[in-house]
Amino acid sequence: MIEAEGLTKYYGSFIAIEDVSFRVPRGEVVAFLGPNGAGKSTTMKLLTGYLAPSEGTAKIAGHDMSTDRLAGATRLGYLPENGPLYPDMTPRSLLEFFADARGLKGGHRDERIDAVVKQCELGSVIGKAIGKLSKGYRQRVGMAQVLLHEPDVLILDEPTSGLDPNQIREVRETIRRLGEKKTILLSTHILQEVEALADRVILISEGRIRFDGTPADLRRDGQGLDERFHELTKSGST
Question: What is the pLDDT of residues 128-142, one digit of tens each?
């Protein structure tokens, strides 16, 4: 459902990522792990078609996101780290706006709005201005809008960044529920996210993949996740 093949992105002489390759099959929740500045967000923007690769290909559900982006976008829900929320809107007016933008009409439009409000537990704040909501609720609003068109694939960039422990718990529970039916790639630099959510871990550092396997595989020779993270991300590691 998600395919990266030799993805490379240059900004002048700076190499943001180089030769990044992996595949995520249907129904898997993958943590895309790495320190700040490792290339996680760049890779996700390439996968979603927001950026064009300097080399390589990115595919969503078989659609090349450089040449067939619109078809790929119908199968994809993307939540960037700072999602497109408008503080003066309410969650309902925002969802209506995005539903119209995605071409949802009539009874199906209303059914999908009601479904994502329930799925993301927004009923108690549905009529409040988004700008007055907690960051946890704003994150749920962002999640609701990416689910409107029933995508098969979700790409979530730092979905718990800046949240307090209770808000993190709520967002994790939402992601767990979604992971029962969706293919999910979520970027993070938080090791607890790996333990809590992931079937598999892809670790990137300095723009290159350093590890691809299960959370259990990541703990090698009795080392904890924090020790392995440091070992794999320290400068010059291979």
Answer: 999 999 888 998 899
